Amino acid sequence: MEAHVRKRRPEEFLQALLPAIHAAGDAAMKLWRSDSRVMTKPDGSPVTAADLECNRLLCEACEELDADIPILSEENNRSLRASDGSAFVIDPLDGTKEFIAGNKDFTINVALVEDGVPRSAILFAPAHHRLFFADGRGRAFEEDSDGRRRQLLPVRQSERAPRIVVSRSHFDERTRGLLMKLAPKSVHLLGSSLKFALLATGEADLYPRLSPTMTWDCAAGQALLSAVGGLVLKLDGSQPRYGIGGDQVIDAFVAGASRKRILAAIEVATSAVIVGESTNEAL
Q1: Which one of 68, 114, 168, 273 is separated from 36 by 20 to 30 angstroms, measured CA to CA?
Q2: Distance of CA 102 to the CA centre of its chain
Q3: Tens digits of per-residue pLDDT, 47-97?
Q4: Which CATH class is domain 163-274?
Q5: Looking at domain 2-151, what is its CATH homologous superfamily?
Q6: Which is nearest to 224 in space by CA: 136, 146, 99?
Q7: Cβ(98)–Cβ(104) below 8 Å
């Protein structure tokens, strides 16, 4: 199977799946801010008709592209054998809570993982009219609503106070304590993997996530950020790896442009200084 996967050029992955990504975006936008029913999954998380329709469109496109590559999606209930080989990792609608609330910060994500590492990816924020992709050859691009593409420049490492993005839905006391210690220039709360995209474009410098998340929430964003020289590191200093089967939880991570800055944030996050810290001070 691996030899079969590696014969494909990265351009084939992107060109074959871009129409499905746009179709999923159109489907999501038709249902956004509608009165469609919200259901609850067994784990207590919400799911909407948009999640399910985007999942159908993306899974069908991936199967048509290469039926031998297993698909790991948030909305898949199929049992997959454990493997660190190649897989499509899909989050059909990342930021479902944002979607339900009528906010713009939801994304549609597909990544092609090879040997546990996300190489190629597409990340689409349809309500923001922003589409990003990593081509699997160390390049990343943004495509506008007219189909015009610009290559994203390598991220710059800066000594200025960081511009930090954090999850709106998971802004916990530990994260608040970390931000107080890092003294950021700005803090932007938003949802979904759009935070990775802002790191990749240079609009933000650091993204700490100190509560558990899932592999499908991160795979496309990590591929995009890696393509411009950024990093995603777990709190033990290692990079997340992506496989199928087994536990798909990523306990915590820090993403950004600078390894030095990421490691400094990890040092603070794993120290005792933010535990029990007063959170009454303004950021």
Answers
A1: 168
A2: 20
A3: 999 999 999 999 999 999 988 899 999 998 655 666 667 899 999 999 999
A4: alpha beta
A5: Fructose-1,6-Bisphosphatase, subunit A, domain 1 (3.30.540.10)
A6: 136
A7: yes
Q: Pairing between strand 140-143 and 46-48?
A: unpaired
Q: Crossing angle, helix 49-65 and helix 10-31, to 10 degrees?
A: 160
DSSP 76-96: -------BSS-EEEEEEEE-H
Residues paired with 165 in a beta bridge: 188
Q: What count of other Cβ atoms lies within 10 Å of the Cβ of residue 79?
A: 7
Q: List strand residue ranges (DSSP E) for the chain, in order.
A: 38-40, 46-48, 71-73, 87-94, 107-114, 117-125, 130-135, 140-143, 149-151, 163-167, 186-190, 206-209, 213-214, 231-234, 249-250, 253-256
**Quick check: 119 and 112 in contact, CB under 8 A?**
yes
Model pTM score: 0.91
Q: Where are the domains of the chain?
A: 2-151, 163-274
